[in-house]
Amino acid sequence: MNMITRRQALGTTAGALTVLGIAGATAHAAATDSRASLPTGTVDEVYQGRRIQITPGGGGHHGGHHGGGHDGLPTVRIDGSELHVMRNADGTWISVVNHYETFADPTSLARAAVRELQGAVLAPFAPMGGTA
Amino acid sequence: MTVRKNQAALSAEEKRAFTSALLELKRTGTYDRFVTTHNGFIMADTDSGDRVGHRSPSFLPWHRRFLLEFEAELQKVDPKVSLPYWDWSADRTTRSSLWAADFLGGTGRARDGQVLDGPFASANGKWAINVRVDGRAYLRRALGAGVAELPTKAEVDAVLNMPVYDMAPWNSSSNGFRNHLEGWRGANLHNRVHVWVGGQMGTGVSPNDPVFWMHHAFVDKLWAEWQARNPKSAYLPAAGTTNVVDLHDTMRPWNDVTPADMLDHRKFYTFDTEPVPAAASQR
Questions:
Q1: Predicted confidence (pLDDT) per residue in A70-79, tens digit
Q2: Are B203 and A97 inside 8 Å of each other by CB?
Q3: What's the pTM value of the predicted model, to 2 decimals?
């Protein structure tokens, strides 16, 4: 099923890689100027038309949301909205939009979220519908 | 006594009653409370912290209780309704009657994943996705796109033959029956089915798709079958485990029910085909 979607997705990916080359060059230029002090692991890229930003988590708080005891998780944003992510015991990653499928690293996870969203915006961090 | 039946064996009238009761729970707002609860646990359950609904031994008793509560709400609408189960090791194609327009409707269209037929299609105006992780308010699916194959009977059998319920560290890296059934390790049963359906079923708000209940009713039946095959095996851990629900600990959000209370499904319902014990010994 849905092989058309997958082929379309692959086609889009190939296109996005070209864009990424440009975006990567720009990011590198920026890094050599003012952003050189950012910790390693920071990602700022355009993937399939969406901006993915990943900043490593520090040892302390990271936004004060969910009490999972997971200080140190990176913050992953898609077009500025935060994506809820979790790390598994084996080091793999999941997000709230791909919750039953594991990914090797936060970048793969964020790109999978972009594909899953098909252009839709992420909802605010807390799920809609309140805390019930 | 409630009898849970294989969805493939339901009559047209049973299908109609089930989907009508779902639509009524949706209309009153009761349905969305279940979605919210599930997503809350999905986001809070962590391998290194407190974990109750997922990636932990209580995955099975927690979902058994969650389904019981949901089934009770369905029965307030229509006392004849019970939760059907979907044996995805048998009904494993997109052509299954499960996905027909008179039941759950089919897969989503390529452009946006939107389900276009069946009672839960957005155009009918009765199934808005309100509890969501992104801006899309319509039911989505991509059957077979995220992963090509549903689990086979042989894969299910291999997991049912694992004699130990669960093992330290009692999370997604554990060996044993629970984690292999949940799917974080090994051939991957439960998790893979969520991915195979796609759409909201692949997300933390997976109960937005009514197939969630039928998937979990079958996972629940597999627990009963495992008990029948392994009559000397018990729920673990028994006591004193940090961040984990032991046999006699209460489970959130109910706080008045323990895994021990959930071990025997026959107190609450039976299946159309009850698992046959492997030995005469009582569990």
A1: 457 899 999 9
A2: yes
A3: 0.87
